[in-house]
Amino acid sequence: MLVYGTKTNATKMKWGDMADHTVQDVTAEQAALRTQIQRFLESNARARSRSDDEDDPGGLFDEVDESTERERIAQSQSFQARLADAGFAGITWPKEYGGAGMSPRELEIFNEEAAGYELPTRIFMIGHGMCGPTLLALGTEEQKRHYIPPMLRGDEIWCQLFSEPGAGSDVASLQTRAVRDGDEWTVNGQKVWTSGAHYADYGILIARTNPDAPKHRGITMFIVDMRSPGIEIRPLRQITGGANFNEVFFTDTHIPHANVVGDVDEGWRAAITVLMNARMAGVSAQGGGGGMGGASVRSLIALARERGVDGDPVVRQLLAGLWIRSTIQRYTGIRMRETARSGRVPGPEGSIAKLYGAQLSRDMGSAAVAIAGTGGQAWDEGARGGDRWAMAVLSAPGSGIAGGTDQVQRNIIGERVLGLPKEPQVDRETPFRDLLVGTQRVS
Predict the structure, then answer these.
(1) Do 261 and 297 fall into the same domain?
(2) What DSSP string describes 101-164?
């Protein structure tokens, strides 16, 4: 028996794809929680509608001016604070760190209800989806008590500082150096493609701390205050016109030793934890739980009707294929949530979903422009959402790079799912200082 609490809720849930959720009974307490969540969302969030189902396919990659961005950040932080005050922030996170201490089922209930609303929480995706879970798993007690509560309330925004100009897919080749001096570390180097660095308060940083060790060892993870002296942030303008990504330069930047996450020189293990959580968060953003992926297909169907081509057999076949694939993606997300629910660490299924979602995003963007015709290339100046389909196709390729390229995901799937032999790695045991990577190629 599937219990959703009230008839009103069943009406709302049509936008959350009820059939895609795990079928199970709920307790009286869970039914009461669902009612509380409904009331909170009705009072604090904007309900989705067909007319604005996907006003912003580009999402984080869209172009906004500085004042609009500040306004969005303020709105997001205000909503997150209300969410925390209501007891719905960090639903499965421990109470002692500001979470609600509930089970994954309660989180699932919240997500079912929230599927019908526009929640301004994407700005916290890196902190809540990647940095926070990593601190909970590897951080010291002091770090968890100091950083997690304000992170959950949205008072502090986090970013991730991994990639470098010479260390993208092969992150272990990073050259940013951290040298210990008593109770501090001095950091010098450059990071790139750092989303939200220009408004982040803190970041998770990995840096080379032992160049005499092989490249996968001798790396350490740090918590870095993004307002520290010696940090310079430069925006990168992408093809969509937005500038959410940044270059970050460190020049004699001091980080307290107390900010080391995990063990010194064992930062690669910590980085893997971040990346696994990143793929889980990314799948949720792509629609692994019934969100953006399914909504994009609905938008394409609406577009086909608007253009009068919904009866074209080729277009119908295209839309049917995308609908099937987005449904598969959502079911994969459900499988991943069940894995997390059982207490297991996210595994290679995250790479499967990440690769599949990236391909689906690109195909959806191409389909959107094909169906939109000239409307996907030109629109009236000032038209609200006029560029939505152009932004969809321009931003889609980024999904195949961010969080690990498609090629990296294929390697992971081949090795950890299919059991194929690893690619030769002749440099795996070579001291890092002897490798010809990055600027070391010159010497």
Answers:
(1) no
(2) ---HHHHHHHHHHHTTEE---GGGHHIIIIIHHHHHHH--HHHHHHHHHHHHHTSS-EEEE--B
